[in-house]
Amino acid sequence: MSRASYRPIAEATASGAIANIGVQEKGENRGKYIEAYQASCVPPIPPGSPWCAAFVRYRMKHAAHSLGLTYDASFPRSGYTPEWSRWAKNNGKWISALDLKSGDTYENVLPGDLALFYIPTLGRIGHIGIITKVSKRGLSTVEGNTSPEPEDADEVERDGDGVFAKMRYWNELGQFGGILLVDF
Length: 184
Prior knowledge:
Elements: H1 8-19, H2 32-39, H3 52-67, H4 81-90, E1 94-96, H5 97-102, E2 114-119, E3 124-134, E4 138-146, E5 162-169, E6 178-180
Antiparallel strand pairs: 1-6, 2-3, 2-6, 3-4, 4-5
Helix pairs in contact: 1-3, 2-3
């Protein structure tokens, strides 16, 4: 698979995400920054709602705006994580967790791509984060609406209170999770 070498929005998204590490909620899924993330979605999601995808949407929108660029109008702008994985699969921009664990496809994953986590209790993609670094064993992400790494490193916290950097092993993406490749 050949990846675009010019990915300014993806790279700026990853840089912006790193700058947001440490943002914390004020109340339950609320606060000045959290509500700005939620308002960036189309349609905006109400304050008090889960906001991991809203964080990703905000960082991508901000990156594009600061660069004076636009990106694919069909790309998700929603706060609903399954729409992001559906878009990736429908547009040939998906690498499944199974493929990542079984081969060298991890070399196609780059900073600025998006990690989508399958949550078995929901039976769907239920969490998303921005990739900042990739290795053979896994990836580093910045995720919103999460918590610091729990004692159980295999636990994906999808209802936390802030923006945190995480180290994720491929198996943490879950059985039907994967990577959304961002090539703009």
